[in-house]
Design goal:
This protein is α+β, with helices and mostly antiparallel strands. The chain has four helices and four strands.
Length: 119
């Protein structure tokens, strides 16, 4: 069961780490999310989430962050290599967010996360 935990070591927290991913990383995006990723040598994937205030009210921003963490928590065991990943929800998702359910977000993010391994 521990493989599905989301420990503090799997969180991207330091400003230098975010800057490295922005500077050296690659990008995958669709109409709902932008994902930036860079390989690391830590032996585990780490996740960072950036949600701008333009996305909506605080409860919407918190909800999308919880959903992103939940998708990552279940998908991380599928990675063969270790990455630093930054997920940024886009404005188009914020417009339709009140009518979107978790499964739509999960399907969209899973497709993008599969693209990381192939890039």
């Amino acid at each position: 069961m521990k493989q599905f935990a989301f420990s503090r070591y799997e969180r991207l927290r330091l400003e230098n780490d975010f800057e490295r991913v922005f500077r050296e990383g690659k990008m995958i995006q669709d109409e709902n999310f932008t994902i930036l990723f860079a390989e690391n040598n830590l032996g585990r994937c780490r996740l960072g989430i950036i949600v701008k205030k333009k996305f909506g009210k605080a409860h919407d921003r918190n909800k999308i962050k919880r959903w992103i963490r939940e998708v990552f928590r279940h998908y991380k065991v599928n990675f063969n290599r270790s990455f630093d990943i930054i997920v940024i929800p886009r404005r188009t998702l914020s417009v339709v967010f009140p009518s979107v359910d978790f499964h739509h977000v999960k399907d969209t993010l899973t497709l993008l996360l599969k693209g990381i391994e192939q890039a």
